[in-house]
Amino acid sequence: MSLALPPADIARAVIRISHEILERNSGPSNVTLLGIPTRGSHLSARLAASIEEISGVPVQNGTLDITLHRDDLRTRPPRALSPTIIPSLGVEGRDVVLVDDVLFSGRTIRAALDALGEIGRPRTVQLAVLIDRGHRELPIRADYVGKNLPTSPSQIVRVAFTELDGVDSVTIEDGPSL
Amino acid sequence: MKHLLSIAHLTKAEAISILNTAQELAKASDGPMKKLPTLRGKTIVNLFAEDSTRTRISFEAAAKRLSADVINFSAKSSSLSKGESLKDTAQTLQAMGADAVIIRHGASGAPARLAENRWMEGSVINAGDGTHEHPSQALLDAFTIRKHLVRGGEDLAGLHIAIVGDVLHSRVARSNVLLLTKLGAKVTLVAPPTLLPVGVKDWPVSISYDFDEILPTVDAVMMLRVQLERMSEQFFPSAREYSHYFGLNSDRLRVMKPNAIVMHPGPMNRGLEITADSADSARSVIVEQVKNGVSVRMAILYLLLAGSSEEIRS
User: Fold this and answer.
1) For residue A72, is pLDDT > 80?
2) In what order do the strands lie in the sheet with B160-164?
3) What local confidence, expressed as pLDDT, does residue B229 receive?
4) Are the beta carbons of B37 and A82 separated by less than 8 Å?
């Protein structure tokens, strides 16, 4: 197991992504952050706090559960659902930033795009992730990346957040050898 | 969990997970797009050997909102009325590739027989069997009670619920007694002695013959339908006397706790166990029970059918 991102780097990445979101969307007024549970929602809460601190304006922040739209449901035991919380202004005509901890195959984001399409029609949909570990299986890319982390497909990337795990860290473990 | 045959088979944790899942699915149903792709390609058969409006339509709506294909199969318009056995029917459904069968049957234990005999591979969901159980109704009742009366908690600890009327013939009452007590509520059955089953003293409930005495202490009152079609003898002297002692009316509504709710699984005999003005009063959540039924049944179908039956580790 190796530490890929210490707490200070995670904090820096959050601040940098916040600046990038503000720059690209000319301020926070039309931005809606939607975190994908579980750790994506924690990251999106941090981004929301950071964007508010930088711009002085609160940003719309919610969560989007994608479980019912997953394409791997039938290969695993049933999953518990997490809450979907759409902020007060909805998604119609907004610049929605989907937020997740790790971008890997891209299938979670595909499911998120489907889930989002059921709620409304945003003006744009952007993607922010803390870690891009490569190995995409779908034509999906992130607009904001905390860190690109070269991995082998069998490795496991674990993101820990203080709120859930007591510590901020990103670690890489060797998975079962293939 | 592969089948839903009875509340007795559910653990408290499983019951709570069904309620929590239903809560999230209810939000999805309130959105502009009601249809979810989750059960696309799954075939669900509604096998109703007994009449039903609410339960059948509710399961059908739940299945369709999750994009499953639904085949309705009612006894009167099928070979069941020509005397086809349950086994032959099951094998037919298996041959057609049913992933789940939702069965209502007049014989207690018919769903268990269907599930245990391996005549078919799909999941079996009990939608009411004889006077045994009606698990999805109990789950939607618990969901409705939790939504109205519980703040913050997951179970029903501390609540007092009265189940009133024809307990003897009621599968709804049996499932509710099991589920509500499992979730920590105190349950009191209120009925004339003739309408209580043999052995009721061994149930985890209190029994009262005096509706007026118990009413000021309850958080929810669940009125049961007097099942005249199952009554081959005289269980009470007259409808008027039954209403007088065990019917819910506006005078009784007045003595209830301020936020107590009135429930009925339907169909109602208006004027017998419940007066029209009580059924339509502000305390009544009877119509909402029907709405919640769809969310709860979506949760049941999701948890039984969406995942793989075997645990696969990635």
Assistant:
1) yes
2) B206-208, B186-190, B160-164, B220-223, B261-263
3) 83
4) no
Residue A169, domain member (yes or no): no
Domain B7-134+291-305 in this protein, CATH class: alpha beta
Task: Tell me which chain B residues have a C-beta less than 8 angstroms from the C-beta of A114.
Answer: 37
Residue A178 has a pLDDT of 56
Question: Using the beta-carbon criterion (under 8 Å), do A75 and B312 form an inter-chain contact?
Answer: yes
C-alpha B127/C-alpha B133 separation (Å) is 8
Residue A3 in domain: no
> What ipTM does this complex have?
0.78
To the nearest 10°, report the CA torsion of B24, B27, B28, B33: 180
pLDDT tens-place string over residues A31-65: 999 999 999 999 999 999 999 999 999 999 999 99
Report chain B residues whose CB lies below 8 A from the CB of A77.
307-308, 311-312
In 3D space, the residue among B250, B172, B184, B255 whose CA is nearest the CA of residue B218 turns out to be: B255
Q: Which pLDDT belongs to residue B309?
A: 56
Structural domain boundaries, residue A24: 8-73+82-151
Are the Cβ atoms of A74 and B308 closer than 8 angstroms? yes
Measured distance CA(A25)–CA(B36) in Å, rounded: 31
Residue A76: count of CB within 10 angstroms of its CB: 16
Q: A151 near A172, Cβ under 8 Å?
A: yes
In this predicted structure, what is the pLDDT of residue A151?
93
Tell me how far apart the alpha carbons of residues B58 and B117 are, in angstroms, rounded to a whole number. Answer: 27
> Using a CB-CB distance cutoff of 8 angstroms, which residues of chain A are in contact with residue B306?
73-74, 78
User: Residues B248-258: pLDDT tens digits?
Assistant: 999 999 999 99
Cβ-contact A33, A59 below 8 angstroms: yes
Interface probe, candidates A66, A76, A116, chain B, greatest B C-beta count within 10 A: A76
d(CA B141, CA B145): 6
Instruction: Kindly tell me if the per-residue pLDDT of B30 is higher than 90.
Output: no
Would you place residue B311 in the very low, low, confident or very high pLDDT band (cuts 50, 70, 90)?
A: very low
* CB atoms B307 and A74 under 8 Å: yes
Task: Please check whether the domain covering B135-286 is classified as CATH 1.20.1250.20.
Answer: no
**Every domain range in chain B assigned CATH 3.40.50.1370:** 7-134+291-305, 135-286
Close Cβ partners of B6 (under 8 Å, ≥ 6 residues apart): B112, B126, B132, B133, B135, B175, B178
State residue B118's pLDDT score.
83
